[in-house]
């Protein structure tokens, strides 16, 4: 799908709390909905509004997870910016690996097959023994 292309002066028209855009690494981002969620607060984002905030973003040393979030808010690309191949790839982050690990653990956290077998047959065996006992004791009473 063709990306929408914006000039920096077009981006500069969106610099309020109600309409906040900026550019990071050639991506034009509409972060209006992210302002309240930003762990670094909304003020820093509003200060960068309408500008190229690449340096500000990098100086903070944002995590890989933060870098991957950029795609979520992208509305287009900056005119004249050519993306390198690596730019479009998702950055592998510890957080996503952790999620994969969690999913793996959950999948393998189930009861082993033999446990399900025991769970089914042990109550059956107990109930069977109980009825056998009842039958035999009653049979004994009848003989007396
Ligand atoms: C869409 C763009 C942005 C996203 C998705 C984003 C995301 C995040 C996230 C997830 C964090 C938590 C720490 C981390 O995971 O790195 C964070 C912290 C922070 N961000 Fe951003 N950020 C963005 C843009 C910016 C910009 C442009 C600035 C500065 C002008 C900024 C300044 C900060 C600061 C000061 C913190 C707190 C760092 C700390 O407490 O050590 N962020 N951001």
From TrEMBL:
Transmembrane feature ranges: 114-136
Places the protein is found: Membrane
Keyword Transmembrane among record annotations: yes
Principal place of residence: membrane
SUPFAM superfamilies cross-referenced by the UniProt entry: Cytochrome b5-like heme/steroid binding domain (SSF55856)
Keywords: Heme, Iron, Membrane, Metal-binding, Transmembrane, Transmembrane helix
GO MF terms, alphabetically ordered: heme binding; metal ion binding
Domain Cytochrome b5 heme-binding: 3-79
Keyword Zinc-finger: no
This protein's GO CC annotations: membrane
Family, per entry: Belongs to the cytochrome b5 family.
The protein, known as: Cytochrome b5 heme-binding domain-containing protein
Source lineage: Eukaryota, Viridiplantae, Streptophyta, Embryophyta, Tracheophyta
